[in-house]
Amino acid sequence: MKHPRHSLLLSLFALAGACLFLPASLSAADKPNVVLIYIDDLGYGDVGCYDCEDIPTPHVDRLAKEGVRFTASYITNPPCCPSRCALMMGQYGQRFGKYGMSRGLPIPADRPTLAKFMGKNGYVTGQIGKWDIGSKVQGPLQVGFAEVAQKPPKKKGSKYFCKNKQGKNQWLTDYDGDNIVTFIERHKAKPFFLYWSPEAVHSKNDEAPPSLTERTTAKGKRSKLAGAIVSVDDQVGKLMKALNKHGLRKNTLVIFSSDNGANIGEEGSSAPYRGGKGSGTQQEGWVRVPTIFSMPGVVPEGKDYHKQIANFDFYSTIASVAGLPIPKHCDGVNLIPYLTGKKKEEPHEYLFWLNNEPGDAERRHLIAVRWKKWRLYKKYAKDDWQLFDLEADPKEEKNVAQKHPDIVERLSAKHAAWSKTLAPLGKIPQLAKSDDRIGTGHGWAYAKDPGK
């Protein structure tokens, strides 16, 4: 017969052990902040910590040194618009009928966006920069963000120069960085979730001034892209300085990533892979992006993580770090146990692509599977599968499908099974106009009156 006290102790230990695998309920004072940085068209080989030698990015490099650099981070729904929708919903875009660009297709209202989820759980939510998510009536204020930076008036005829509050010309990315600091200053005493997605470094970058381009050693057309990337790095520096100033660095998860691979037309780099935006959208460089997580004491420092993840993991990880349960609709996982070594398996044994929207640009059509070292893909359903060993052949120059029919059969079957779980192709509503509640200016737009 067991001793009653012994049984009680065993029960308590079991309960404590179970709690280790559940998100803790955190008080407002203990809740971590989150800053999610999502760059437009930043290539895998365009950042110093990813072996880029002609573009200095010391602040991003420091972020990697103080965190984890992912070497197999994927965008399953490229390019810009679908990538951002998958990010904000925490799931494959095909779960809600998005099989390509489908700009204007609503994001679902029956499951929370990352912003709405964080807002309902005590976070101040802010957005700066590019949106490109959902329908014309689903702006950031309508889907969960409490505060959104207004778009500054542009210099006449310019994409990247704006007029600041003093009426002077300012590089738009630099202006965004000032807004990042403003947001942190205003909410330093509260838990916040800030999403910054600059227009940079989307084409064209030909306005990049000598004050930026001359800080790089890039040549020709690439020097303009390089200058734009240098400015992105400067804003990461502003962010880190603001966090350190207010003692928030250790309590802030910073995620840095890109919405899709390099823009080949701007001479972006996907090295050591090939492909990217434009003519290389069937290759690895189109979907593999630089990604960094950093949070001292929570995320290991100075580590590379080589197993495959996707951008929809960001939602799940942010929820878990905030001590919240991951919503049931999410396809992602909490990456922290994988980064710390508590979980040894792959976060995702398989990742899938099915970008075949009939109205989308044909160059962007892609059907693919990633598993271990293998990449299986084709452009159209009627095409034969092509198989590549990315470890031996990162530039995908040798199709080994005929040599490994068993791998082709395995991965194609997995893709077919996954495809059966998806929603049908969505329809874009015909809306007369957008519901713009933000406008142009130098202030902030609010979902609710900040004075109330």
Topology:
Layout: H1 4-19, E1 33-39, H2 58-65, E2 68-74, H3 80-89, H4 114-120, E3 124-129, E4 147-149, E5 161-163, E6 169-171, H5 172-187, E7 192-197, H6 210-213, H7 222-245, E8 252-258, E9 288-294, E10 303-305, E11 309-310, H8 313-321, H9 336-340, E12 350-355, E13 366-371, E14 374-378, E15 386-389, H10 405-419, E16 444-446
Parallel strand pairs: 1-7, 1-8, 2-10, 2-11, 3-4, 3-7
Antiparallel strand pairs: 2-9, 4-16, 5-6, 8-9, 12-13, 13-14, 14-15
Helix pairs in contact: 5-7
3D architecture notes:
- This protein has 452 residues and is an alpha/beta fold.
- Helix 5 runs parallel beside helix 7.
- The chain folds into two domains: 33-349, Alkaline Phosphatase, subunit A (3-Layer(aba) Sandwich), CATH 3.40.720; 352-419, Arylsulfatase, C-terminal domain.
- The chain is built from ten helices and 16 strands.
- The strands form three sheets. Strands 1, 2, 3, 4, 7, 8, 9, 10, 11 and 16 form a ten-stranded mixed sheet that branches. It has a four-stranded antiparallel sheet with strand order 12-13-14-15, with helices on one face.
- The termini are far apart.
- Gap between N and C termini, in Å? 63 Å
Name of the top-level CATH class of the largest domain? Alpha Beta
Helix-strand string: HEHEHHEEEEHEHHEEEEHHEEEEHE
Count structural domains: 2
Please summarize the sheet with the most strands. Answer: 10 strands, mixed
Mean pLDDT rating: 93
Low-confidence stretches: 1-24
Query: How does CATH name the architecture of the largest domain?
Result: 3-Layer(aba) Sandwich
- State the total count of DSSP E strands: 16
Please count the helical segments. 10
- By helix and strand content, what is the structural category? alpha/beta
C-alpha Rg (nearest Å): 22 Å
* Proportion in β-strands: 15-25%
Per CATH, what is the topology of the largest domain? Alkaline Phosphatase, subunit A
Fourth CATH level, the homologous superfamily of the largest domain: Alkaline Phosphatase, subunit A
